[in-house]
Amino acid sequence: MLLENRVAVVTGAGRGIGLAIAEAFGREGALAIIGELDAGRGREAAARLTACGYRSQAIPLDVTQAASCIALVDQVSAAHGPIDILVNNAGLFLFHRSEEMPEAAWRQQIDVLLTGVFLMAQAVGRGMIARRRGSIVNIASIGGMGGWPMRAAYNSAKAGVIALTEVLATEWAHHGLRVNAVSPGVVRTEMMQEAVRDGVASAEQYARRTPLGRIAETSEIADAVVFLASDRASYVTGVNLRVDGGWVPWGNLRARGYPDEVPRV
Questions:
Q1: Is the pTM for the entire model greater than 0.90?
Q2: For 118-163, what is each residue's pLDDT tens digit?
Q3: Buried (b) or exposed (e) across 37-65, using 16+ Cβ within 10 A?
Q4: Which residue among 113, 187, 218, 238 is least packed, with the fewest CB closer than 10 Å?
Q5: Which of 154, 206, 235, 258 is catalytic?
Q6: Any idea where the domains of the chain sit in the sequence?
């Protein structure tokens, strides 16, 4: 029970990676608070965890609004005590060619994926600083480490999350806080399946492009988050842990005459 009796907040935990993280936290003994914009989805996720015997509660949350972030912190603190762990996971995906992207689509993604991470970290971090303990894990992406067509806002925001993680880690270390990031590769989530359905992604091509030869499961990302959130990582801060099946080391070598897919030898 790596997280026994810890109070953990996971944003955007109504489905996908966030829900897998909340489940993993429950399994490790934590109270998993699900911060979710879709209140109904949040309640369903909390009920699922409760049915498994885990402690969980759903609280409506709009990470783009500082008042909403502060309200969640106040509600959790009043009911359950100080927040020990924060996972900034809330996200969305909008595909546009850069020359055609509406300003609203750019701003929405930056607001949720980057500004929302800062606002939640700020709201939770104040209490952690006062208590001189706490762990924050930001969900970034390998998209933040390269250029993928039709993802200008998403990749820019995720690159910002990686930089923000390093800033907060160094700024808050002397207060006893640890701040890390996890950058997933391609993961089997509802968002990925929607991209495949819309014809902007191919699960088969993703698998061939990954050295391990397959797409990640949400539980594999959750396991990495549990480690960083726990005392097992007590001397780890400012790290961006790639969980990508080898995607980034392989790189995009088409320009050098290599195939897009990893050769099987």
A1: yes
A2: 999 999 999 999 999 999 999 999 999 988 888 999 999 999 999 9
A3: beeebbbbbbebbeeeebbbbbbbbbbbe
A4: 238
A5: 154
A6: 7-245
